[in-house]
Structures are given as C-alpha cells and as structure tokens.
Design brief:
By secondary structure, the chain is mainly α. It contains 17 helices and no strands. The longest helix has 29 residues. The radius of gyration is 20 Å and the shape is globular.
Length: 322
Amino acid sequence: MRVVRLVVGLGLTALALYLANPASVLKAAAMTRPGWIAAAILLVIPDRALMAYRWLVLLRPFEAARRLPRTVILRIFFVSTFVGTFLPSVGGDAARAVSLARHGVSVADSAASVFMDRLAGVWSLLLLALAGLALVDATIRTDTTVSITVILAAAVCGCAALVVGSDRVAGIVTRAIALMPFAAAQRVAQRLLESVRRYRNHRTVLVNVTIGSVAVQIIRALQSYCIGRGLGIDAPLAVYIALIPVILLVMLVPVTVNGIGTSQLAFVWLFGRVGVPSAQAFALSVIAVSLGIVGNLPGGIIYAVGGPSADTAPPRTARSGP
C-alpha cells in the first residue's frame, strides 16, 4: 500500500509538472529571490515550536503523560514528525501514539492526544480558510474544490465536537461500538472514546490549543507568501490566507506519501484561479512542501544522535486501559 501511495503521488506530481510545463517551471525557479526564501525558512522555527507546545498542552489531562520528562515527549514529537515524512499523512501520528504508549501512557490516552492534535489542526485550518475567503473575490469562495474541502472539514470538526461535548452523541457512539464484531475491538474503541471525551472537562486546554493552532496556520500562510514573493508572484496575503489552509486540508487526505502530488495539483489549480501562472504555482508548491521536510529534519538528527533504543525501549510497561 505504501508503494501504491508513492506511485500515485509521483504520478500526480508528474501530471502537475506536465500541466505547468517543465521548462517554464525551471525558468520560474531560476528567478527566485533568495532573501524571501530565507525568510520562509526562518519561519519554520516558530512553526515547529508551536506544534510541539500544542501537543504538550494536549497531554495535560493525562496523569501518566504529565509524569514524563518534557525532553522525552519532545523527542517523541520530533522523531515522529521525521518518520512521518516518509509515510501517508496519518503515519507520523500513528508513530507518535505508539512511541508515547511505550513510555507508560495508555494506548487510548496516547491515541486520544494525537487525535485531538490532528483535529486542532483541521479546526484551525477551517477557521483561517473561512477568514481568508471572506477577504477574497467571490469566484474563489464559490470554487467547487474550495467549497467541498471547507464543507468536509466543517463536517469532521462538527462531528468530533459533538462526540467530545455531547453525552447524547457519545451514547450513540457507544451503542455503535457495541455492534462491532470483535470484543477486543469494542474495548479499544470504548477506551479511546472515554479518553477523547476527557477533554470536555479541560476547556482551557482546548482554547489554548486552538489559539496555538491558528498561529501555526498563519505562519504557514506567511511562509507561502514569502515563497511567492521570492518567485515574483504578486498575489496579496489574503489570497494565501484563503488558499493555503484549503491546500493543507487536501494534503491531509492519505492517498499519497507526505502529500506529494496532491499538493502540487492543489497549488496549480487553486492559485491558477487567481491568475498565478502554472509554472510559478508548481514551483511554489515544491518549495513549500520542501520547507515542511526541512522542518522535519531535526527529528532525524535527534533520532540519529540518540539511537533507536530511546524510542523502542520503554521505561515501564504501557497499559492498554485509560
């Protein structure tokens, strides 16, 4: 399956490159102004710092996680983001949850923290996209791709919010879990539900995480804006605030490795709607995705220096219960 996703990603990238014209892409890249690219690279630092802080906050409701040294948690975060570079969009999340569980936090609590971290990302993307779309031309707001993406993100966030905050909806989910075919699967799902619902009593955590998540998405829009300026794209910042969240939501769909291919097509299509030439949009997509990989490299360094044993040898036995 991983090979299939990689092939699909490379195929979509080739299609986007063909639509953009390879010669034109090279010409656009050759005219890049390095100062703007350097500014975009520097923004990787606050981006990753806020992401790590967001997960630390989300672990506060769980006592076993609070007992862990922050250095251990940060190592897990950065190493898992590096591993996620080579996996579908949810691969890094799975690696993070498994690694945390190996350090004595229950599987359900580990998975719940990662799930809420991902949900916070989707929620903040939705908020920023809605704010940006209110500032741009109506033709972008009514674009089919934009509309479908925003509606799906809103549906996901709405359903998750109801599961976390509504006892009635949680009861419906519990009854649905009881219909699952295997008792072991029922127990795992029920424990995960209980761990996720623990956040309903930690509203300060949720507000804190939402603010941090919105800040992360603003930084990413600013990164793309800097790259665009470096490529000579004169689109206003509002366009990036509207379109980058939509593109990042598209990249979350786990059909390729690390959003390769889907991101290129999304950049070319959506920025083409505001008059950006395909060659510049493709170059923008490649540099933007490359910045994400650059941001993941510290995890590779931490893994190499510390060795694999730090993540595979738990100090105590992980529990499966909440």
